[in-house]
Amino acid sequence: xxxxxxxxLLGGAILEAQVAKDARREKLGNAEADRIFAxxxxxxxxxxxxxxxxxxxxxxxxxxNPYAAARIDELRGxxxxxxxxxxxxxxxxxxxxxxxxxxxxxxxxxxYMNSRLKEDGITFTNSTAFNKGFFSSRPIDLLEQDAKYRKxxxxxxxxxxxxxxxxxxxxxxxxxxxxxxxxxxxxxxxLQEDEMLTGVSLNVRLKLSEGILKSLALNGSxxxxxxxxxxxxxxxxxxGQKVRVKDLNPMYKLIY
Length: 256
Prior knowledge:
Helix content is 75%, strand content 3%.
């Protein structure tokens, strides 16, 4: 074996040993960083520098371990992302006007997340690792925010629709004085048909019907209540038969 071959083999062995050593360093650094971060208080996770957190290891000197530092910064990014999201969901979103569309809702969420990060002034040593922790779940976060927004918007539309139906029923009953029972019942029947056509749930229809009966008991007449009891609340999905107010509404049975 000539000198060149010998040196080549020696170089390869040295490189292989260095790679193995570096792999051990990475494994140790990541594991110890996970352990330390889990034991760090909420306040210290935000205010302490990466090196200050690493210095809390009683087992190893991690000050010059780039893998440990990067892992701390990534974990801090993940932690702050979760913290800010929870703040937004619990305190911000419920107390602000509903966005006009999904795009505006996404922008409002991202603006809050970025402003909170700037406001806290977090210090880190590895921006790539921190950004990975803070931003890696952003696509999923935005999808979740959009689902919450759509649900909130649907609830808002349903509340406005139900309020409009209730107001219309009140108008019918308020103006029922001197009108024929059949005419009042016809108008209330038309209202209940609108409820069926717009997909109002049966539970909500029952509540609206109870409100109508209470109003009739206060401002209408017994004969109007009787006429209203004959109106159709819905059609049975199985049999297709009419289900009338008098057959289903507990309030009607209390009055009669």
